[in-house]
Design a protein that fits this description.
The complex is a heterodimer of chains A (about 300) and B (about 240). Chain A is of the alpha/beta class and about 300 residues long. Helix content of chain A is about 30%, strand content about 30%. Chain B has one domain. The chains are: A alpha/beta (about 300), B mainly alpha (about 240). Bound molecules: adenosine-5'-diphosphate and magnesium ion.
Protein backbone atom coordinates (compact mmCIF):
# COMPACT_ATOMS: atom_id res chain seq x y z
CA UNK A 1 0.00 0.00 0.00
CA UNK A 2 1.27 3.45 -0.93
CA UNK A 3 1.18 5.82 2.02
CA UNK A 4 2.77 8.88 0.45
CA UNK A 5 2.73 9.68 -3.24
CA UNK A 6 4.52 12.70 -4.70
CA UNK A 7 4.40 13.63 -8.39
CA UNK A 8 6.20 16.47 -10.15
CA UNK A 9 6.32 18.57 -7.00
CA UNK A 10 7.68 22.12 -7.41
CA UNK A 11 7.99 25.16 -5.14
CA UNK A 12 9.71 28.51 -5.64
CA UNK A 13 10.38 31.28 -3.15
CA UNK A 14 10.06 34.56 -5.02
CA UNK A 15 11.45 33.10 -8.23
CA UNK A 16 14.07 30.90 -6.54
CA UNK A 17 13.23 27.24 -7.26
CA UNK A 18 13.72 25.41 -3.94
CA UNK A 19 12.03 22.16 -5.07
CA UNK A 20 11.90 21.05 -8.72
CA UNK A 21 10.00 18.17 -10.25
CA UNK A 22 10.26 15.89 -7.21
CA UNK A 23 8.50 12.52 -7.45
CA UNK A 24 8.62 9.49 -5.17
CA UNK A 25 6.44 7.01 -3.32
CA UNK A 26 6.62 5.66 0.20
CA UNK A 27 4.93 2.39 1.10
CA UNK A 28 3.07 1.86 4.32
CA UNK A 29 5.30 0.81 7.21
CA UNK A 30 8.45 1.82 5.36
CA UNK A 31 11.19 4.14 6.61
CA UNK A 32 12.10 6.53 3.82
CA UNK A 33 15.06 8.90 4.08
CA UNK A 34 15.31 12.19 2.23
CA UNK A 35 18.96 13.14 2.03
CA UNK A 36 20.86 16.12 0.76
CA UNK A 37 23.17 18.93 1.71
CA UNK A 38 21.93 22.02 3.50
CA UNK A 39 19.75 24.04 1.19
CA UNK A 40 18.95 21.16 -1.14
CA UNK A 41 15.20 21.50 -0.48
CA UNK A 42 14.44 18.80 2.13
CA UNK A 43 12.60 21.07 4.57
CA UNK A 44 10.60 22.71 1.81
CA UNK A 45 9.59 19.24 0.62
CA UNK A 46 8.49 18.19 4.12
CA UNK A 47 6.49 21.41 4.50
CA UNK A 48 4.77 20.70 1.19
CA UNK A 49 4.05 17.09 2.20
CA UNK A 50 2.53 18.22 5.50
CA UNK A 51 0.32 20.87 3.91
CA UNK A 52 2.05 23.85 5.52
CA UNK A 53 2.89 25.23 2.08
CA UNK A 54 0.97 25.10 -1.17
CA UNK A 55 2.91 23.62 -4.09
CA UNK A 56 3.42 25.65 -7.28
CA UNK A 57 3.40 22.46 -9.33
CA UNK A 58 2.67 18.77 -8.88
CA UNK A 59 0.58 16.79 -6.43
CA UNK A 60 0.99 15.25 -3.01
CA UNK A 61 -1.22 12.50 -1.61
CA UNK A 62 -1.02 11.15 1.92
CA UNK A 63 -3.26 8.10 2.20
CA UNK A 64 -5.00 9.48 -0.88
CA UNK A 65 -5.69 12.91 0.63
CA UNK A 66 -4.36 16.31 -0.42
CA UNK A 67 -2.53 17.72 2.63
CA UNK A 68 -3.39 21.34 1.78
CA UNK A 69 -7.06 20.94 0.88
CA UNK A 70 -7.79 18.18 3.41
CA UNK A 71 -5.35 19.26 6.11
CA UNK A 72 -7.69 18.57 9.01
CA UNK A 73 -8.38 15.04 7.77
CA UNK A 74 -4.72 14.33 7.02
CA UNK A 75 -3.78 15.48 10.52
CA UNK A 76 -5.91 12.73 12.08
CA UNK A 77 -3.31 10.28 10.81
CA UNK A 78 -0.03 12.18 10.67
CA UNK A 79 2.55 13.31 13.18
CA UNK A 80 4.91 16.11 12.24
CA UNK A 81 8.27 17.05 13.70
CA UNK A 82 9.43 20.26 12.01
CA UNK A 83 13.08 21.15 11.68
CA UNK A 84 12.36 24.13 13.90
CA UNK A 85 9.25 25.06 15.88
CA UNK A 86 8.59 27.03 19.04
CA UNK A 87 7.51 26.00 22.52
CA UNK A 88 6.02 27.99 25.36
CA UNK A 89 9.19 28.38 27.40
CA UNK A 90 7.42 28.83 30.75
CA UNK A 91 5.37 25.65 30.58
CA UNK A 92 6.84 22.45 31.99
CA UNK A 93 7.41 19.42 29.80
CA UNK A 94 4.29 17.72 31.22
CA UNK A 95 2.16 20.87 30.79
CA UNK A 96 3.38 21.18 27.19
CA UNK A 97 2.34 17.63 26.40
CA UNK A 98 -1.04 18.15 28.10
CA UNK A 99 -1.65 21.40 26.22
CA UNK A 100 -0.83 19.64 22.98
CA UNK A 101 -3.11 16.75 23.86
CA UNK A 102 -5.95 19.29 23.61
CA UNK A 103 -5.14 19.79 19.93
CA UNK A 104 -4.96 16.06 19.21
CA UNK A 105 -7.77 13.61 18.52
CA UNK A 106 -7.70 10.68 20.99
CA UNK A 107 -4.22 11.52 22.28
CA UNK A 108 -1.90 9.05 23.98
CA UNK A 109 -1.67 9.67 27.72
CA UNK A 110 1.02 12.35 28.19
CA UNK A 111 3.13 10.03 30.31
CA UNK A 112 3.21 7.42 27.56
CA UNK A 113 4.39 9.93 24.95
CA UNK A 114 7.13 11.14 27.30
CA UNK A 115 8.15 7.57 28.05
CA UNK A 116 8.46 6.84 24.32
CA UNK A 117 10.62 9.90 23.78
CA UNK A 118 12.74 9.09 26.84
CA UNK A 119 11.79 12.29 28.61
CA UNK A 120 9.88 11.03 31.65
CA UNK A 121 12.57 12.19 34.06
CA UNK A 122 12.16 15.77 32.85
CA UNK A 123 8.36 15.96 33.15
CA UNK A 124 8.49 18.71 35.77
CA UNK A 125 11.20 20.79 34.08
CA UNK A 126 10.38 24.06 32.38
CA UNK A 127 10.94 23.93 28.63
CA UNK A 128 13.34 26.88 28.76
CA UNK A 129 15.69 24.77 30.90
CA UNK A 130 15.91 21.84 28.49
CA UNK A 131 19.02 21.17 26.44
CA UNK A 132 18.85 21.15 22.65
CA UNK A 133 18.70 17.37 22.55
CA UNK A 134 15.95 17.26 25.21
CA UNK A 135 13.89 19.79 23.25
CA UNK A 136 14.23 17.51 20.24
CA UNK A 137 12.91 14.62 22.35
CA UNK A 138 9.96 16.80 23.35
CA UNK A 139 9.35 17.58 19.66
CA UNK A 140 9.22 13.83 19.10
CA UNK A 141 6.85 13.27 22.03
CA UNK A 142 4.44 15.85 20.58
CA UNK A 143 4.66 14.31 17.10
CA UNK A 144 3.76 10.90 18.57
CA UNK A 145 0.82 12.12 20.69
CA UNK A 146 -1.84 11.32 18.11
CA UNK A 147 -0.61 7.75 17.42
CA UNK A 148 0.08 8.70 13.79
CA UNK A 149 0.04 6.25 10.88
CA UNK A 150 2.43 8.50 8.99
CA UNK A 151 5.27 10.30 10.69
CA UNK A 152 7.23 13.19 9.13
CA UNK A 153 10.55 13.87 10.87
CA UNK A 154 12.70 16.76 9.64
CA UNK A 155 16.22 16.19 11.03
CA UNK A 156 14.94 14.37 14.13
CA UNK A 157 18.28 13.83 15.85
CA UNK A 158 20.07 17.10 15.17
CA UNK A 159 21.45 18.39 18.46
CA UNK A 160 21.19 15.03 20.23
CA UNK A 161 24.10 13.25 21.87
CA UNK A 162 24.97 9.75 20.60
CA UNK A 163 22.80 8.10 23.25
CA UNK A 164 19.80 10.25 22.38
CA UNK A 165 20.35 9.46 18.74
CA UNK A 166 20.41 5.71 19.38
CA UNK A 167 17.27 5.92 21.55
CA UNK A 168 15.49 7.84 18.82
CA UNK A 169 16.53 5.33 16.15
CA UNK A 170 15.15 2.57 18.35
CA UNK A 171 11.80 4.36 18.73
CA UNK A 172 11.57 4.96 14.98
CA UNK A 173 12.36 1.32 14.23
CA UNK A 174 9.75 0.07 16.69
CA UNK A 175 7.08 2.37 15.29
CA UNK A 176 7.85 1.27 11.73
CA UNK A 177 7.80 -2.34 12.90
CA UNK A 178 4.22 -1.79 14.03
CA UNK A 179 3.22 -0.35 10.65
CA UNK A 180 3.88 3.37 10.98
CA UNK A 181 5.19 4.96 7.78
CA UNK A 182 8.16 7.22 8.48
CA UNK A 183 9.59 9.88 6.19
CA UNK A 184 12.70 11.46 7.68
CA UNK A 185 15.27 13.91 6.49
CA UNK A 186 18.78 13.87 7.83
CA UNK A 187 22.25 14.93 6.98
CA UNK A 188 23.71 12.15 9.13
CA UNK A 189 24.37 9.54 6.49
CA UNK A 190 24.88 6.84 9.08
CA UNK A 191 21.40 7.55 10.43
CA UNK A 192 19.83 7.09 7.02
CA UNK A 193 21.86 3.99 6.28
CA UNK A 194 20.91 2.32 9.57
CA UNK A 195 17.23 3.20 9.55
CA UNK A 196 15.88 3.61 6.08
CA UNK A 197 14.91 0.93 3.61
CA UNK A 198 14.65 3.41 0.77
CA UNK A 199 15.92 6.85 0.05
CA UNK A 200 15.99 9.83 -2.25
CA UNK A 201 18.95 12.16 -2.50
CA UNK A 202 18.19 15.80 -3.28
CA UNK A 203 20.56 18.29 -4.78
CA UNK A 204 19.61 21.87 -5.67
CA UNK A 205 15.91 21.03 -5.37
CA UNK A 206 15.98 17.92 -7.56
CA UNK A 207 16.16 14.22 -6.81
CA UNK A 208 19.48 12.97 -8.11
CA UNK A 209 19.36 9.40 -6.81
CA UNK A 210 16.60 7.25 -5.35
CA UNK A 211 15.52 3.70 -4.74
CA UNK A 212 15.96 0.94 -2.19
CA UNK A 213 18.85 1.43 0.20
CA UNK A 214 20.46 -1.96 -0.45
CA UNK A 215 20.16 -1.77 -4.25
CA UNK A 216 21.32 1.84 -4.40
CA UNK A 217 24.43 1.04 -2.41
CA UNK A 218 25.11 -2.25 -4.20
CA UNK A 219 24.91 -0.48 -7.54
CA UNK A 220 27.75 1.77 -6.47
CA UNK A 221 30.14 -1.15 -5.84
CA UNK A 222 32.74 -0.87 -3.12
CA UNK A 223 36.41 -0.52 -2.48
CA UNK A 224 39.50 -2.40 -1.36
CA UNK A 225 42.31 -0.42 0.25
CA UNK A 226 45.77 -1.56 1.41
CA UNK A 227 49.29 -0.24 1.92
CA UNK A 228 51.30 -0.77 -1.21
CA UNK A 229 54.29 -3.04 -0.36
CA UNK A 230 57.72 -1.38 -0.75
CA UNK A 231 59.14 -1.56 -4.23
CA UNK A 232 55.89 -2.61 -5.90
CA UNK A 233 54.92 -0.68 -9.02
CA UNK A 234 51.14 0.01 -8.88
CA UNK A 235 51.10 -0.70 -12.65
CA UNK A 236 52.08 -4.30 -11.97
CA UNK A 237 48.96 -5.00 -9.82
CA UNK A 238 46.29 -7.23 -11.43
CA UNK A 239 43.63 -4.55 -10.92
CA UNK A 240 43.76 -0.78 -11.46
CA UNK A 241 44.24 1.26 -8.29
CA UNK A 242 44.38 4.90 -7.35
CA UNK A 243 46.61 6.35 -4.62
CA UNK A 244 45.14 7.98 -1.51
CA UNK A 245 48.12 8.94 0.65
CA UNK A 246 50.13 5.81 1.27
CA UNK A 247 47.10 3.63 0.45
CA UNK A 248 46.34 1.99 -2.83
CA UNK A 249 42.57 1.97 -3.45
CA UNK A 250 40.82 -0.34 -5.86
CA UNK A 251 37.19 0.45 -6.73
CA UNK A 252 35.15 -2.52 -7.84
CA UNK A 253 31.57 -3.63 -8.41
CA UNK A 254 32.31 -6.68 -6.27
CA UNK A 255 34.85 -5.66 -3.63
CA UNK A 256 35.07 -9.19 -2.12
CA UNK A 257 36.12 -10.67 -5.44
CA UNK A 258 38.63 -7.84 -6.02
CA UNK A 259 40.18 -8.50 -2.59
CA UNK A 260 40.54 -12.19 -3.40
CA UNK A 261 42.23 -11.42 -6.70
CA UNK A 262 44.67 -9.05 -5.04
CA UNK A 263 45.46 -11.45 -2.18
CA UNK A 264 46.06 -14.35 -4.56
CA UNK A 265 48.37 -12.16 -6.61
CA UNK A 266 50.28 -11.09 -3.47
CA UNK A 267 50.56 -14.66 -2.10
CA UNK A 268 52.07 -15.82 -5.41
CA UNK A 269 54.85 -13.25 -4.90
CA UNK A 270 55.30 -13.76 -1.18
CA UNK A 271 54.02 -10.20 -0.47
CA UNK A 272 51.86 -8.98 2.39
CA UNK A 273 49.00 -6.53 1.76
CA UNK A 274 49.15 -4.65 5.10
CA UNK A 275 46.13 -2.76 6.43
CA UNK A 276 43.76 -4.45 4.00
CA UNK A 277 40.23 -3.02 4.20
CA UNK A 278 37.28 -4.24 2.15
CA UNK A 279 33.97 -2.45 2.22
CA UNK A 280 30.76 -1.97 0.30
CA UNK A 281 29.81 1.54 -0.82
CA UNK A 282 28.40 3.80 1.87
CA UNK A 283 26.08 6.73 1.52
CA UNK A 284 29.13 8.88 2.01
CA UNK A 285 30.64 7.52 -1.20
CA UNK A 286 27.36 8.22 -2.96
CA UNK A 287 27.36 11.76 -1.60
CA UNK A 288 30.92 12.46 -2.53
CA UNK A 289 30.15 11.37 -6.07
CA UNK A 290 27.41 14.00 -6.42
CA UNK A 291 28.16 16.70 -8.97
CA UNK A 292 29.79 19.69 -7.37
CA UNK A 293 31.44 17.93 -4.45
CA UNK A 294 35.17 18.06 -3.98
CA UNK A 295 36.77 14.74 -3.41
CA UNK B 1 -13.31 20.36 21.10
CA UNK B 2 -10.36 21.84 19.31
CA UNK B 3 -11.66 25.42 19.11
CA UNK B 4 -12.11 25.33 22.88
CA UNK B 5 -8.52 24.11 23.22
CA UNK B 6 -7.26 27.03 21.14
CA UNK B 7 -9.40 29.38 23.25
CA UNK B 8 -8.00 27.97 26.49
CA UNK B 9 -4.46 28.28 25.21
CA UNK B 10 -4.91 31.98 24.40
CA UNK B 11 -6.48 32.58 27.82
CA UNK B 12 -3.86 30.62 29.75
CA UNK B 13 -1.00 32.44 28.07
CA UNK B 14 -2.67 35.82 28.59
CA UNK B 15 -2.89 35.44 32.37
CA UNK B 16 0.65 34.05 32.59
CA UNK B 17 2.38 36.94 30.87
CA UNK B 18 2.96 39.39 33.74
CA UNK B 19 4.54 42.17 31.66
CA UNK B 20 1.73 42.03 29.16
CA UNK B 21 -0.90 42.01 31.93
CA UNK B 22 0.43 45.33 33.14
CA UNK B 23 0.23 46.89 29.70
CA UNK B 24 -3.08 45.45 28.62
CA UNK B 25 -4.98 45.30 31.93
CA UNK B 26 -3.61 47.69 34.53
CA UNK B 27 -3.02 50.66 32.22
CA UNK B 28 -6.33 50.72 30.34
CA UNK B 29 -8.44 49.82 33.37
CA UNK B 30 -6.57 52.46 35.36
CA UNK B 31 -7.46 55.06 32.71
CA UNK B 32 -11.04 53.89 32.28
CA UNK B 33 -11.68 54.09 36.02
CA UNK B 34 -9.24 56.82 37.00
CA UNK B 35 -10.35 59.52 34.55
CA UNK B 36 -14.07 59.35 35.45
CA UNK B 37 -13.20 59.40 39.15
CA UNK B 38 -11.10 62.50 38.54
CA UNK B 39 -13.90 64.20 36.56
CA UNK B 40 -16.46 63.39 39.23
CA UNK B 41 -14.39 65.17 41.84
CA UNK B 42 -13.02 68.22 40.03
CA UNK B 43 -15.91 69.53 37.93
CA UNK B 44 -19.25 70.92 39.01
CA UNK B 45 -21.23 68.86 36.51
CA UNK B 46 -19.35 65.88 37.93
CA UNK B 47 -21.58 62.93 37.12
CA UNK B 48 -22.32 64.00 33.55
CA UNK B 49 -18.66 64.67 32.80
CA UNK B 50 -17.59 61.41 34.40
CA UNK B 51 -20.16 59.47 32.38
CA UNK B 52 -19.03 61.07 29.14
CA UNK B 53 -15.38 60.43 29.74
CA UNK B 54 -16.03 56.83 30.78
CA UNK B 55 -17.90 56.18 27.55
CA UNK B 56 -14.95 57.65 25.67
CA UNK B 57 -12.44 55.46 27.48
CA UNK B 58 -14.16 52.38 26.09
CA UNK B 59 -12.22 53.23 22.91
CA UNK B 60 -9.00 53.00 24.93
CA UNK B 61 -9.93 49.58 26.29
CA UNK B 62 -10.81 48.34 22.82
CA UNK B 63 -7.61 49.65 21.26
CA UNK B 64 -5.28 48.41 23.99
CA UNK B 65 -6.85 45.37 25.61
CA UNK B 66 -8.19 44.05 22.32
CA UNK B 67 -6.23 45.44 19.38
CA UNK B 68 -2.75 45.86 20.82
CA UNK B 69 -2.99 42.73 22.93
CA UNK B 70 -3.92 40.41 20.06
CA UNK B 71 -1.31 41.99 17.77
CA UNK B 72 1.44 41.51 20.36
CA UNK B 73 0.35 37.95 21.18
CA UNK B 74 0.11 36.81 17.55
CA UNK B 75 3.34 38.42 16.34
CA UNK B 76 5.17 36.96 19.35
CA UNK B 77 3.87 33.47 18.65
CA UNK B 78 4.52 33.89 14.94
CA UNK B 79 8.15 34.91 15.46
CA UNK B 80 8.80 32.16 18.03
CA UNK B 81 7.48 29.63 15.50
CA UNK B 82 4.66 28.64 17.84
CA UNK B 83 2.01 29.34 15.21
CA UNK B 84 3.97 27.13 12.85
CA UNK B 85 3.89 24.30 15.37
CA UNK B 86 0.18 24.86 16.00
CA UNK B 87 -0.39 24.32 12.30
CA UNK B 88 1.06 20.81 12.63
CA UNK B 89 -1.70 19.99 15.13
CA UNK B 90 -5.27 19.09 14.36
CA UNK B 91 -6.33 22.76 14.51
CA UNK B 92 -7.25 24.42 11.24
CA UNK B 93 -5.91 27.88 10.49
CA UNK B 94 -9.40 29.30 11.10
CA UNK B 95 -9.63 27.57 14.48
CA UNK B 96 -6.24 28.88 15.59
CA UNK B 97 -7.25 32.46 14.82
CA UNK B 98 -10.83 32.11 16.05
CA UNK B 99 -9.63 30.66 19.37
CA UNK B 100 -7.27 33.58 19.90
CA UNK B 101 -9.89 36.15 18.88
CA UNK B 102 -12.52 34.64 21.18
CA UNK B 103 -10.10 34.59 24.08
CA UNK B 104 -9.10 38.23 23.53
CA UNK B 105 -12.76 39.30 23.28
CA UNK B 106 -13.56 37.52 26.55
CA UNK B 107 -10.75 39.32 28.36
CA UNK B 108 -11.89 42.68 27.01
CA UNK B 109 -15.52 42.10 27.91
CA UNK B 110 -14.54 41.05 31.43
CA UNK B 111 -12.46 44.20 31.90
CA UNK B 112 -15.23 46.45 30.52
CA UNK B 113 -17.67 44.83 32.94
CA UNK B 114 -15.25 45.35 35.80
CA UNK B 115 -14.69 48.99 34.84
CA UNK B 116 -18.44 49.61 34.49
CA UNK B 117 -19.02 48.43 38.04
CA UNK B 118 -15.97 50.30 39.33
CA UNK B 119 -17.06 53.68 37.94
CA UNK B 120 -20.58 53.09 39.27
CA UNK B 121 -19.18 52.64 42.75
CA UNK B 122 -16.37 55.18 42.65
CA UNK B 123 -17.74 57.95 40.40
CA UNK B 124 -21.53 57.50 40.47
CA UNK B 125 -21.58 56.82 36.71
CA UNK B 126 -25.02 55.25 36.21
CA UNK B 127 -25.31 51.78 34.73
CA UNK B 128 -26.16 51.86 31.00
CA UNK B 129 -29.87 52.53 30.41
CA UNK B 130 -30.01 49.86 27.69
CA UNK B 131 -27.83 47.00 28.96
CA UNK B 132 -28.49 44.81 25.91
CA UNK B 133 -27.33 47.50 23.49
CA UNK B 134 -24.34 48.21 25.74
CA UNK B 135 -23.32 44.55 25.86
CA UNK B 136 -23.84 44.09 22.11
CA UNK B 137 -21.76 47.16 21.30
CA UNK B 138 -18.91 46.06 23.56
CA UNK B 139 -18.86 42.43 22.40
CA UNK B 140 -19.18 43.22 18.68
CA UNK B 141 -16.79 46.15 18.90
CA UNK B 142 -14.15 44.06 20.57
CA UNK B 143 -14.66 41.18 18.12
CA UNK B 144 -14.16 43.58 15.21
CA UNK B 145 -11.08 45.12 16.84
CA UNK B 146 -9.66 41.63 17.49
CA UNK B 147 -10.11 40.61 13.84
CA UNK B 148 -8.51 43.89 12.73
CA UNK B 149 -5.64 43.43 15.20
CA UNK B 150 -5.00 39.92 13.90
CA UNK B 151 -5.02 41.15 10.29
CA UNK B 152 -2.79 44.11 11.19
CA UNK B 153 0.04 41.75 12.23
CA UNK B 154 0.81 41.22 8.53
CA UNK B 155 2.20 44.78 8.55
CA UNK B 156 4.31 44.29 11.70
CA UNK B 157 7.82 43.15 10.69
CA UNK B 158 8.98 41.85 14.07
CA UNK B 159 7.34 41.03 17.39
CA UNK B 160 9.37 43.64 19.31
CA UNK B 161 7.78 46.33 17.14
CA UNK B 162 4.18 45.20 17.70
CA UNK B 163 3.38 47.61 20.55
CA UNK B 164 4.97 50.54 18.73
CA UNK B 165 3.05 49.73 15.56
CA UNK B 166 -0.28 49.71 17.40
CA UNK B 167 0.38 53.04 19.15
CA UNK B 168 -1.03 55.23 16.33
CA UNK B 169 -4.21 53.15 16.31
CA UNK B 170 -4.59 53.68 20.04
CA UNK B 171 -4.04 57.46 19.73
CA UNK B 172 -6.49 57.86 16.84
CA UNK B 173 -9.12 55.78 18.63
CA UNK B 174 -8.73 57.69 21.88
CA UNK B 175 -8.85 61.12 20.24
CA UNK B 176 -11.73 60.11 17.98
CA UNK B 177 -13.81 58.94 20.93
CA UNK B 178 -13.16 62.09 22.93
CA UNK B 179 -11.21 60.26 25.60
CA UNK B 180 -8.38 62.69 24.95
CA UNK B 181 -9.79 66.18 24.79
CA UNK B 182 -7.86 67.58 21.81
CA UNK B 183 -9.53 70.25 19.62
CA UNK B 184 -9.98 68.88 16.10
CA UNK B 185 -10.88 70.44 12.76
CA UNK B 186 -14.32 69.30 11.64
CA UNK B 187 -13.14 67.02 8.83
CA UNK B 188 -10.76 65.19 11.17
CA UNK B 189 -13.57 64.65 13.64
CA UNK B 190 -15.71 63.22 10.86
CA UNK B 191 -12.95 60.88 9.72
CA UNK B 192 -12.16 59.65 13.22
CA UNK B 193 -15.88 59.15 13.72
CA UNK B 194 -15.64 56.36 11.15
CA UNK B 195 -13.37 54.25 13.36
CA UNK B 196 -15.00 51.14 14.82
CA UNK B 197 -14.13 52.35 18.31
CA UNK B 198 -16.09 55.55 17.64
CA UNK B 199 -19.06 53.48 16.51
CA UNK B 200 -19.04 51.63 19.83
CA UNK B 201 -18.92 54.89 21.78
CA UNK B 202 -21.77 56.35 19.67
CA UNK B 203 -23.92 53.32 20.41
CA UNK B 204 -23.20 53.46 24.12
CA UNK B 205 -23.40 57.24 24.55
CA UNK B 206 -26.26 58.15 22.20
CA UNK B 207 -28.16 54.91 21.88
CA UNK B 208 -27.56 54.82 18.08
CA UNK B 209 -28.12 51.38 16.59
CA UNK B 210 -28.18 51.36 12.81
CA UNK B 211 -25.14 53.47 11.96
CA UNK B 212 -22.81 51.74 14.46
CA UNK B 213 -24.07 48.34 13.33
CA UNK B 214 -23.28 49.12 9.68
CA UNK B 215 -19.91 50.57 10.63
CA UNK B 216 -18.90 47.48 12.62
CA UNK B 217 -20.15 45.14 9.89
CA UNK B 218 -18.06 46.96 7.29
CA UNK B 219 -14.89 46.97 9.41
CA UNK B 220 -15.43 43.34 10.41
CA UNK B 221 -15.79 42.26 6.79
CA UNK B 222 -12.70 44.24 5.78
CA UNK B 223 -10.73 42.61 8.60
CA UNK B 224 -11.81 39.10 7.64
CA UNK B 225 -10.79 39.71 4.03
CA UNK B 226 -7.43 41.14 5.15
CA UNK B 227 -6.75 37.94 7.14
CA UNK B 228 -5.95 36.37 3.77
CA UNK B 229 -2.55 38.02 4.07
CA UNK B 230 -1.96 36.75 7.61
CA UNK B 231 1.63 35.54 7.98
CA UNK B 232 2.11 32.32 9.93
CA UNK B 233 5.89 32.54 9.99
CA UNK B 234 8.42 35.32 10.41
CA UNK B 235 9.88 36.85 7.28
CA UNK B 236 13.30 35.52 6.33
N1 LIG C 1 10.85 30.82 3.46
C1 LIG C 1 11.84 30.88 2.54
N2 LIG C 1 12.01 31.98 1.79
C2 LIG C 1 12.98 32.05 0.87
N3 LIG C 1 13.88 31.07 0.61
C3 LIG C 1 13.78 29.94 1.34
C4 LIG C 1 12.77 29.78 2.34
N4 LIG C 1 12.91 28.55 2.90
C5 LIG C 1 13.97 27.97 2.27
N5 LIG C 1 14.49 28.80 1.34
C6 LIG C 1 15.62 28.48 0.44
O1 LIG C 1 15.26 27.33 -0.31
C7 LIG C 1 16.35 26.42 -0.41
C8 LIG C 1 15.98 25.08 0.19
O2 LIG C 1 15.84 25.23 1.59
P1 LIG C 1 15.39 24.06 2.53
O3 LIG C 1 14.15 23.45 1.99
O4 LIG C 1 15.32 24.61 3.91
O5 LIG C 1 16.60 23.03 2.37
P2 LIG C 1 17.18 21.93 3.37
O6 LIG C 1 16.13 21.58 4.36
O7 LIG C 1 17.56 20.80 2.48
O8 LIG C 1 18.38 22.55 4.03
C9 LIG C 1 17.52 27.09 0.29
O9 LIG C 1 18.29 27.74 -0.69
C10 LIG C 1 16.87 28.10 1.20
O10 LIG C 1 17.71 29.21 1.41
MG1 LIG D 1 16.20 21.54 6.39
Amino acid sequence: MTAIQVRGLGKSYGGFPAVRDVSFEVSQGEIFALLGRNGSGKTTTVELLTGLRRPDAGTVRVHGLDPVADRAAVRQRTGVMLQEAGFFPDLTVAQTVDTWGGFTAAPRPGGEALELAGLSAKAGTRVRQLSGGEKRRLDLALALLGRPDVLFLDEPTTGMDPEGRRDTWQVIRELAGRGTTVLLTTHYLEEAQRLASSLAVMDAGRIVASGGMAETLAARGGRVAFRLPDGVDPESLPLPVTREGDLAVCRADDPDLAAQTLLTWAAGRGLRLAGLEVRAATLEDLFLDLPGSVR
Amino acid sequence: MTLAAAYNLGTRLFWRDKAMLFASVVTPVGLAVGMPVLMRNVTSEGVTAATEIFQGTLAILLSITTFMNIAVALTGRRDQLVLKRLRTSRLTDAQILAGQIASTVTQTVALVALSTVAVRVLADVPFPPDPVLYAAAVVLGSAVMAVLGAAYTAAIPRAELAAAYTMPVFLLAAVGAGAMPIPLPGWAGTLLGLLPTSAVVDAVARGDVLAPALNLAAWGAAGLVALRWFRWEPRR
